Amino acid sequence: xxxxxxxxxxxxxxxxxxxxxxxxxxxxxxxLEAGLNRIEVTLAYPPRTTPxxxxxxxxxxxxxxxxxVIHCRACREDVENASKYDSWGIAVYVALSxxxxxxxxxxxTDEEVIRKLVDAVESSxxxxxxxxxxxxxxxxxxxxxxxxxxxxxxxxxxxxxGATMISVPDTSGLLxxxxxxxxxxxxRKRTQAPLSAHFHNDYGYASANTVEAILAGADEAHVSILGxxxxxxxxxLYEVAAVLTDIHRIELGIKRESLKKLYxxxxxxxxxxxxxxxxxxxxARTIRAGVHQSMTTKAPEGYIPKMKLQYDxxxxxxxxxxxISKRLVEKLLNGQxxxxxxxxxxxxxxxxxxxxxxxxxxIERLQQILSQMGLSIPHERIKEYFGYVHAxxxxxxxxxxxxxxxxxxxxxxxxxxLIQEVSGDSDLLLxxxxxxxxxxxxxxFKTRLSHIVDKIxxxxxx
Length: 462
Known about the structure:
Alpha-Beta Plaits, TIM Barrel, 14 strands, 4-stranded antiparallel β-sheet, 43% helix, 8-stranded parallel β-barrel
């Protein structure tokens, strides 16, 4: 089984969070480093978007031997404009479900709308694009509510016209994994045309549906970083690529070990934090239940999948809750020569203090407790088990200084997890991670930014 992932963060994702040109170029380069070779962008529509920006992005992609695809409407005007750019492929789209034809194309018959899509494909072929994707928008609704035979007839018609890929998207997020499997299996019985899967996430099934589509024979599937896109987005790149690679052992050409870096880079550039429920978040590796903590001090793969430990996280992180494990405290204190009864008493005290603090103990408070008991634990050891101290940093940029180069510099800092432009008393909001021992980190941060920043405010997250 062979399938290709097309990343559409720079097209579908921009409907959710537009990025500056410098961020787009950095993101394109990072996608390519991770093995995402087929990357989709939007046709420029002056004066709303600029041809110059599109040319620069395409130049970056072409310089790295990528397969860029320009997405545009199914009309000869857009195909003509797309042909002026150096793009490997083109994607033309139009909606063919009855509800869309009625409310978008009330002056046209079904046949006339289909003809628009066929004409766009034929025009794309004349222009010499190597990859021509015809998108039958709202295809899942045609399958569910209308006639699969009609859908297949259109697919074959488009292939005959020169389409090298036909996309049958779930535009309104109507499918579940089982329905997706049936959908693609039914299409595979009826046509040999190359099919592309594009799922929206209205009911939260986009990533699972995409996996099912590939397992059922889809030739291409569309993903974006964090699944961002119109409404609540599409399939998440990681949730599709990691599952297919780790569990189903399907070769996608993705550098599995690069996905974490890709997501961290995107988060910095976009200002979108990796959400807690995402498989790449710090929360995904954080163990809170005492019994789980006890187990993972010996065999972390008992709760975190082995492949995730290999590619995404070096080890689990722990949180100090009322249920903290005695075995975890014992391991933290390794070399301190405390007898088991003292370790038990300390564990109970720490757990009780966590309860008094509302159910969670901060790293600084844990350090205070250990210090009061005459226990000296290195900062690095605390970080190894409990992670970093997090802080919001507000920056006021000096007059005359350009903000975009600073964002580019900050995006390279390992401490910086998120960068967001703001207005008011500050210009930038950062989320940063600091080693335990906050004052030392704050001073380091101030020194590194003193040449360009008038004011820095730190808000430590407790």
